[in-house]
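Cross-check.
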Amino acid sequence: MTTWRDQLHGASFRGVPFHVDSDSMPVGRRTQVHEYPQRDKPLVEDLGRVTREIKLAAFVIGEDFLVKRDDLLNALDKPGAGELIHPWYGRLMVTATGCSVSHERREGGMARFDLVFVEDGEKGFPAGVPNTARQLEESSESLLQSAIRRYKAAMAMVNRARLAVVVLQNGIAGVQMAIASELRQLTGLVGSVEALADMLINAPGNFSAMIRGQFSSIGGSRSTGYRWGPSSSDSAGGASAISAASSSIEADPEFASTVAGLPEADPVFASFTDSGRAIAGQVEQSRQLAAQVAAAAAVIQAGGGVAGGVETAAVVEAARELVRDALIVLAVRTAAAMPVVQAPAQLSGYPSLAQQVVSPIERPDVPVTADVVAVRDAIEAALVAAGQVSPHEHFEVLEVVRKQVRAHLTEVARAGVRLAEVTTQESLPAVVLAYQRYGDATRAGEIVTRNKVAHPGFLPVGTLAIAQE
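Predicted model, tokenized:
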């Protein structure tokens, strides 16, 4: 029969053995107690776990105790951390500090040590960690500004008196569909293709103000779009010409104030699942608009005729590109709102099923790595598609956004859980599989959603994708 003595480890430090009489080590938390007047109870502030200082009453003994003593003294004198084999705790990385050795004539052949070790902590200097979400927000703001500059420059060159109304309406049907799908708050202003065409013909500045007004600036304030002009960073020459042309496209003040009263498009994070679905829809709409822009550009390059004339084609292209970029900005800001979370700790035990019915287990919302990577790749594909039909200045802005998207969503995915496959031989209720796999029956909905099961009471027989933990 194995006893507790059989489970003890032979004590040593840096490979030098010794014997232990007794040990002690502080445990618990470091706290700061705050007491306030007129309050009966204090506030206890947690300052972290107490530093583990291991104290050992040790000795070496035998005919060669002097050699053993010198070996242990040499091990204690070496700088840096070393491996301590603790009789009760096993392997520990520690640093020796405050040790002492003593001899006593009555204890011939023995040397006693009072050993003090401190657990080894992480070494290094404080280093700044980039806020990838903030960087992504800033790059999305630059993309939005660049998109509006392009739109205003293009519309300033159009002779709107030559526009073919019917052809224009047919060309912007996809733009109207994208607005109705992903920017629903704007349907009160442009609820039909006819209304959108009328705005582009008679008040093109209102259209850019409408798009600009849906996104707050990085400082948290919201721009109405009125008298919005290119940034001061524009260089002289070609950029200044664009600035002068763009300044002629202004929003009506009354319309701008109306836009300011509409709900913002800036997303608020609710869950990783909801964010992924929203991004998928936004990216799909932007991809369709990018395909339409690329198809129109291919026709022009092939020398084909332009329906409705060059002026009409320019307005359709400007509207498509602005809404396409606005949808990308919306998808990027939805991604930026996804937090970088800590991976959940493995639960040491699970309550019974009856207890879970009364008090379900609460687990933090953690992303699935594969889902985040899929979202990242989809946004990158949309940015690449937009860059293929963009001038060099706008392409550079798109590239910056693409790199920031990859950096942020890679950090989000790093803390996510990975998927595993489980094969069932019979149809089971999702709650049964969740309890068998995780010990947590409340995760049944997670299995149903991921595998698109028609009924949670009847999982299909075969291979199912579920989280590893």
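The chain has three domains: 4-119, 132-336, 418-469. Residues 272-301 form the longest helix (30 residues). Passed to J.P. for a second look.
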